[in-house]
Amino acid sequence: MRGVGKNWWNSTSFVSTVIDVGLIALGLWTTASSVSAVRTLLRNNRRNITRMVEKEIMKKIGLSVGSFVGAAIDVALTIASTSVGGVLAEGFDRVDGKNDNYIFA
C-alpha cells in the first residue's frame, strides 16, 4: 500500500482523539437509552409494581454497571497518560511498518 503522507488527519494523536470521542459518545448514548428504558418501564407499570418490575430494574442497572466498567477503564487509562484510542492508534501506526506517529504514512 502506498503511503498517504504525513497529514494532521492521519497523525496518531488525531486518530486516538477521534476514537476516544467515539467511545465516549457510545457510552453516553448507552447510558441514556438505559435510563429511558427504565423510566418507560416504570411509567407503564405504575399500578402493578411488583417483583417483576424490581427484576427488570436490576437488569437495566446491570447494563449501566457494564457501561460504567468500560468508562472506568477509560478513566484509568487516561490517568496513566494513555487511552483506548491512543493504544489503538499506536497499534495502527505499528501495522504500517514504521513507528513515525503517522498512520499509513
What is the element layout, followed by pairings?
Layout: H1 12-44, H2 51-79, H3 84-95
Keywords: Membrane, Transmembrane, Transmembrane helix
Transmembrane segments: 21-42, 63-89
Structure description:
- With 105 residues, the chain is mainly α.
- It has one domain.
- The protein has 3 helices and no strands.
- The chain is elongated and about 65 Å long.
- The termini are close together.
- The relative contact order is 0.22.
Keywords:
70% helix; elongated; 105 residues; 0% strand; mainly alpha
Low-pLDDT segments, ≥5 res: none
Report the order of strands and helices.
Answer: HHH
Strand pairing plus helix content: what structural class?
A: mainly alpha
The main pleated sheet reads as: none
Continuous helix count: 3
Number of strands: 0
Q: Rg to the nearest angstrom?
A: 20 Å
Shape: elongated
The CA-CA distance between the termini, in Å, is 10 Å
Report mean pLDDT, rounded to a whole number. Answer: 75
Helix content class: over 70%
How many domains is the backbone divided into? 1
Hey, roughly how much beta strand do the residues contain?
Answer: under 5%
